[in-house]
Amino acid sequence: MKTNTKSKSAALWEDRSKLVSSGSAAYSSLVLEKGLGAKVWDVDGKEYLDFAGGIGALNVGHCHPKVVAALREQAGKLLHTSFHVAAYENYLDVCRELIAVAPWQGPKKAILFNSGSEAIENAVKFARGYTKRRTVIAFDNAFHGRTLLCLALDGKHKPLRQGLGAMPPDVHHARYPYSYRPPVGVPASELTAHCLESLENLFRVSAAAEDVAAIIVEPVQGEGGFIVPTPGFLKGLRTLCDKHGIVLIVDEVQTGFGRTGEMFAIEHDGVAPDLMVVAKSLCGGMPLSGVVGRTEIMDSVATGAIGGTYGGNPMACAAALAVFKIMKEEKLVAAGKKIGETVKKRFDGFRDKYSFVGDSRGLGAMRAIELVTDKKSKTPLPAAKVKDILHACEDRGLIVIKAGVHDNVIRTLMPLVISDADLKRGLDILDDAFGSFKL
Description:
This protein has helices spanning 8-19, 53-56, 65-75, 89-101, 116-131, 148-153, 191-205, 233-244, 295-298, 314-329, 332-353, 383-395, 420-436; strands at residues 32-36, 39-42, 47-50, 108-113, 135-139, 171-174, 212-217, 247-251, 275-278, 289-294, 357-363, 366-374, 379-380, 398-399, 401-403, 409-412. The chain has 439 residues and is of the alpha/beta class.
């Protein structure tokens, strides 16, 4: 008599639900065992193409041999000391590399942390220390992390802030130019001016400009749905910050390291930040983040006000230095541009082919499609139906994830080392999943 036995993946997934807080998000039901390049394998041996890339943390791919070798070598030298106790060379080397690639002129310094959220919080501290002001302005649809100050900066209430009590004060939100969903009566040609004027109005009615320490912005909104700002918006922010003595913080956590076809997304607009936050693909999957900025801002806080026990850990720094070499040797910035051209062509085709694909957008390999029930009304496709599409992709061997304030955007964060054949195969799987979907 046959007995039904669960797969190892299914059994471990049951363990996940028993052992891990339900507050932890789950994009898929996979339990992975290994990965290489743009592919991963689950504990049952099934292969998947990875279009999620650790939520943008794996531009150099899974287990790149040079990252693995750097980690093995470092593991036999120094695992930890805390940079506050004693400095070590590869921390300094990472800072040197960040300063060299930061896309603006003038004296700069850097400092390292563990996560994007931690780096964002410290960037705000630098801005407040430098300006002696308290107020920070972020944007609707923004995502900057899940620590308490970052939650206040995030431009989405549910589920991020819901039920978590009072948020830190002195944070305001302005309108980000979302060209697919502009305010009623505002044509696309006027959206940049409208959003900049709404910011000026915020200065008049909610937060006086002379009290604002920083404006923090994603050059392409990530979790918000891969929203590319309208032309001139980021330059307009730079002008406003210069006019009022406000620090401009650019969040490149998800957009950096070749994802948009430039080393950093802000380069598309030729805008110089005062502070730039990096993380994710900085170190090939290890926990590392950083802030690089103008020296006078980076040196404006008291010694001991910034830091942390594990920030810039020697292992993570070793991985980051390998990533910098890989980026140059394998020309991954150019790869991001080339991948983006391929994905854009297919996504534009999906928009024309399927009634529920309302928009195709992005920069470089950071591309997305927004799903709707009707192209005329632009009513967001319900999140449950979007999840059905993601599961259909998963069944066919493709990992892809969602985004957007309505959870109705499918985004691509595949490793930039992906082969042309695997890129095509992944896009074909998505096409097939769309073809089987019924509204």
